[in-house]
Amino acid sequence: MRKLTIPIKASLVLVLGFFLLSLGGCDSNSSSNHSMIFTGETTEPGDNTFYLVQGETTEDTIEIILMASNILAERAYGIAFDLDFDPSVINYTGLDKGSFFEDNGQFEAVYLGALQSNDPSKLVVGITQQAKKYGVKGQGLVASFHFRGLKEGNSKLRFSKNVMMNSDMEAVSGISWRGGEIRVER
Fold first, then answer.
1. What DSSP assignment string belongs to 90-111?
2. Are 144 and 84 in contact (CB under 8 A)?
């Protein structure tokens, strides 16, 4: 009986190849082969509007930026909302602070964002100033949300249960919220 010998380099290549296959390297739904594009509901948000725009993208992630446009109705002390999306198409991966509620470093703000425990299609978000109840007006970057593409398809990003509070902790009327849609392509 003859022994079969494989050179060490060839063995390493085979082991590495099997390892990569086990990680899903040949899976057509693998997120590493996706590009992502965001289309907002509006290009001209108008006054008293919170709206979404596309930020940076990598080969399988996208940054969605929440902007404030001319918040003039009252001073904004905080906001709370659900951001609804399709969890079979995209996955929420994180939240970055903005500068709007910090009023260019004059205040500190608290940023909370988590998936609703019984509904992975809802990102529950709360952002508020801390300590002094002054509030802010104007426009600026509120926060950034990060998503990873899971498979080809479209996912709407819609606001629900949204509210802006003034410094007296009263809901402010006349505020618009504009979402959009993420398209994941291969």
1. EEEEEEEE-STTTTTTTS-EEE
2. no
For the chain, the C-alpha Rg in angstroms (whole number) is 22
39: β partners: 181
**Tokens representing residue 147 in the block:** 């998503």
CA distance readout (Å), 157 to 11, 99, 114: 47, 22, 15
How far is 46 from 158, CA to CA, in rounded Å? 18
* CA separation for the pair 87, 7 (Å, rounded): 46
C-alpha pair distances (Å), 171 with each of 79, 163, 185:
9, 6, 39
Entry pTM: 0.81
8 A C-beta contact, residue 55 and residue 71 = no
CATH number listed for the domain at residues 33-185 = 2.60.40.680
Residues 6+ apart with CB under 8 A from 136: 71, 75, 76, 100, 101, 103, 107, 129
Q: Average pLDDT per run of 10 along the chain, which is 186 residues long?
A: 41 32 36 81 94 94 97 94 98 96 84 96 95 85 97 97 94 97 94
Q: Return the structure tokens found at 43.
A: 């290009």
Secondary structure of 123-158 in the HEC alphabet? EEEEEEECCCCCCEEEEEEEEEEEEEECCCEEEEEE
